[in-house]
Design a protein that fits this description.
Elements: H1 4-23, H2 28-33, H3 40-44, H4 48-63, H5 74-147
């Protein structure tokens, strides 16, 4: 049986590759060319879970990660072991995806909080500058009034 580390490592690779194909900008032209989520082929490269199946189908035999032994012999046993092991890798990759979604969401919350704090700081600085400008205008008006000569006295 495949060791546990290899099973989880291949699952992580499957998750990473499928996430890259379905979400990253580098594959956007491919997804658009295939019709995005509007067509069957486009959906297969736009859905991380769908794509992870095909990536797992390719990586399981390449890495020899046959985690589920079957008792059926011959070519049917080989195909069944490949298929079931690929499904297991896909399911583990789906759990990884959920875990990383929570991590990404938490990072997004931190980034939004930082952005809000930066906006508050920028607003406070803007208000300070505006108040300082208004104060300097008032001071300039007061100085202008004080420097004006007094009006001539009526005779």
């Amino acid at each position: 049986m495949t060791d546990l580390f290899q099973l989880f490592a291949v699952s992580a690779v499957v998750m990473g590759i499928s996430q890259t194909i379905t979400k990253e900008r580098i594959f956007a032209p491919l997804r658009e060319r295939l019709g995005g989520k509007e067509t069957f082929c486009g959906y297969l490269v736009s859905c991380p879970y769908c794509t992870s199946h095909y990536v797992a189908f390719a990586l399981v035999p390449l890495t020899g990660t046959y985690a589920i032994p079957v008792v059926v012999g011959g070519w049917a046993g080989i195909v069944l072991s490949w298929f079931l092991s690929s499904i297991l890798v896909t399911v583990i990759a789906a759990f990884y995806r959920v875990f990383f979604w929570f991590v990404d969401e938490a990072q997004g919350l931190v980034r939004r909080r930082q952005r809000t704090e930066e906006e508050e700081i920028a607003t406070k600085q803007l208000v300070r500058r505006k108040v300082a400008h208004e104060v300097s205008q008032v001071e300039a008006e007061v100085e202008a009034e004080e420097s004006e000569p007094p009006p001539p006295a009526a005779h």
